[in-house]
Amino acid sequence: MTDRRGRIDAAELSSAQLSPDGSRLILLMRDAAGQSVSLSLPADCLNTILTATPRQVEADAAYSVDTWSMAPAENGRDMILTLCTPQGLAVSFLVKPWQVEGMATVATHAHPHQSPPRSVH
Predict the structure, then answer these.
(1) CA–CA separation, 26 vs 19, rounded Å?
(2) Which of 14, 22, 117, 121 is deepest in the core (most CB within 10 A)?
(3) Are 55 and 41 in contact (CB under 8 A)?
């Protein structure tokens, strides 16, 4: 770590935990000299951190969706689509209305030998 306030260079992550009220992610780290530092981040930034973290994903990997939700984005034009796995992993995507309509169309007409559902939930 350096003495510059704007940057923390951690050599080791000692622990990661949520605050008692669940509103903050607390990271306890150590620098190369063994000095400890604590970093507290809003819990709602976890998806941003996970999205920025590089991961090795196999080309044929597919994950089951347990639940999903959709809400208007702050810009008033787009939607936020959140997909959750049975293991508790949640990933959110900013999608355009036309993309949602395209997904609904594909889902509705994916099986041409079945009659289309009467409603979409």
Answers:
(1) 7
(2) 14
(3) no
Could you tell me if 61 and 80 are in contact, meaning their C-beta atoms sit under 8 angstroms apart? Answer: no
Backbone conformation region of residue 43, classed left if phi is above 0, alpha if psi is from -120 to 50, else beta: alpha
In tens, the pLDDT along 88-119 reads 888 889 999 999 999 988 888 877 666 655 66
DSSP summary character for residue 90: E
Judge whether residue 81 has pLDDT over 70. Answer: yes
All domains of the chain in start order, with CATH? 7-54 (2.40.50), 64-112 (no CATH)
Phi/psi at 118 (5° precision): -75, -25
